[in-house]
Design goal:
This is Small ribosomal subunit protein uS9. Belongs to the universal ribosomal protein uS9 family. The protein has one domain: Ribosomal Protein S5, domain 2, CATH 3.30.230.10. Strand 1 and strand 2 form a beta hairpin. By secondary structure, it is an alpha+beta fold. It starts with a strand and ends in a 32-residue tail after the last helix. It has a 5-stranded mixed β-sheet. It has 4 helices and 5 strands; from the N terminus they run E-E-E-E-H-H-E-H-H.
């Protein structure tokens, strides 16, 4: 079996497991072709940006499993997973990816809803009378 490189990406509640193998640029997400999985989502092309940055778009096949969250969170999780897998492949690529923010985990999560509130912080409307 050919060598493969693994990277985990997380964003909001999405978790992406990315496996890179030498190939010709075929990207599948949960067994579905990349374009078909994300449909017409414009932001989806940003997920492959780490591969474009290091000119590796047609050198690797990516098999990705992603779960949780919505499509936007999944795109960002895939982006981080791809960047981490590329660094596993060649640690010299870190110098290219790090300044562009591809190796930074976005730690923002949804704040939990509190009792007595409509949302996490939105209080019921005040009524003087």
């Amino acid at each position: 079996m050919a060598e493969q490189f693994y990277g985990t990406g997380r964003r909001k509640t999405s978790v992406a497991r990315v496996f890179l193998r030498p190939g010709n640029g075929k990207v599948t997400v949960n067994g579905i072709e990349f374009q078909d999985y994300f449909g017409g989502l414009v932001k989806a092309v940003a997920a492959l940006e780490p591969l474009r940055t290091v000119d590796a778009l047609n050198r690797f096949d990516a098999t990705i499993t992603v779960e949780g969250g919505g499509k936007a969170g999944q795109v960002d999780a895939i982006k981080l997973g791809l960047a981490r897998a590329l660094v596993r492949y060649n640690s010299d690529l870190r110098a290219k990816l790090k300044p562009l923010g591809f190796l930074t985990r976005d730690a923002r999560e949804v704040e939990r809803k509190k009792y007595g509130k409509h949302k996490a912080r939105r209080a019921p409307q005040f009524s003087k009378r």
